[in-house]
């Protein structure tokens, strides 16, 4: 089961049961954040000027991943294409230790929806040595829908 959230950004997102919207987003303007039931954090930003094609999507994910490389010494885990009905996307996952020395994984997912809508997602998880939840990444892309 999943819960659909209207983000107020002209995009809705369906997340696993138990997810909740955070009151305030620390991800910047035109963003919303959600907490999943296991404590994972999903940040969603809309920036239609960020990407118009796959090359732009890849550049966005690499640029966002570079923040974690620069700030936390992150290392690449994997990257690859993520597609859905009427959606083109790319994901880039990095592993790092945060300021409190907690092992983390940031997965940056850029998705181009119909009508030139670009949605960027950051999935921030605790990295206890488990593989990336590729099914969750696909669910995030599949759960994005334009609302306006």
Overview of this structure, please?
This protein is globular. By secondary structure, the protein is of the alpha+beta class. The longest helix is centred in the middle third of the chain and has 19 residues, at 54-72. The chain is built from two helices and ten strands. The model has no long low-confidence stretch (mean pLDDT 95). The protein has one domain (2-8, 21-52, 60-146): Protein Transport Mog1p, Chain A (3-Layer(aba) Sandwich), CATH 3.40.1000. Strands 3-4-5-9-8-7-6 form a seven-stranded antiparallel β-sheet. The two termini are 25 Å apart.
Assembly state: single chain
Using the 3D structure, state the CATH architecture: 3-Layer(aba) Sandwich
CATH topology: Protein Transport Mog1p, Chain A
Question: Helix count?
Answer: 2
Radius of gyration (CA) equals 14 Å
**Silhouette:** globular
Fraction of residues in helices?
10-25%
User: What number of domains?
Assistant: 1
List the uncertain runs.
none
Give the CATH level 1 class.
Alpha Beta
Strand order of the largest sheet: 3-4-5-9-8-7-6
> First CA to last CA: what distance?
25 Å
Mean pLDDT: 95
- H-E order: EEEEEHEEEEHE
The proportion of residues in beta strands is over 45%
**Major sheet attributes:** 7 strands, antiparallel
* DSSP summary, beta strand count: 10
CATH superfamily: Mog1/PsbP, alpha/beta/alpha sandwich
Task: Assign the structural class, choosing from mainly alpha, mainly beta, alpha/beta, alpha+beta, or little secondary structure.
Answer: alpha+beta
């Amino acid at each position: 089961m999943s819960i659909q959230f209207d983000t107020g950004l002209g995009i809705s997102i369906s997340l696993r049961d138990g997810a909740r919207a955070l009151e305030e987003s620390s991800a910047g303007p035109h963003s919303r954040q959600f907490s999943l039931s296991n404590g994972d954090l999903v940040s969603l930003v809309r920036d239609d000027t960020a990407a118009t094609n796959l090359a732009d999507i890849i550049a966005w994910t690499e640029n966002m991943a570079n923040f974690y490389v620069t700030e936390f010494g992150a290392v690449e885990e994997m990257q690859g294409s993520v597609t859905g009905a009427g959606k083109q996307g790319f994901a880039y996952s990095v592993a790092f230790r945060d300021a409190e020395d907690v092992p983390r994984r940031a997965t940056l997912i850029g998705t181009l929806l119909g009508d030139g809508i670009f949605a960027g997602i950051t999935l921030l998880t605790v990295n206890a040595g488990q593989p990336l939840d590729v099914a969750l990444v696909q669910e995030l892309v599949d759960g994005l829908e334009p609302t306006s």
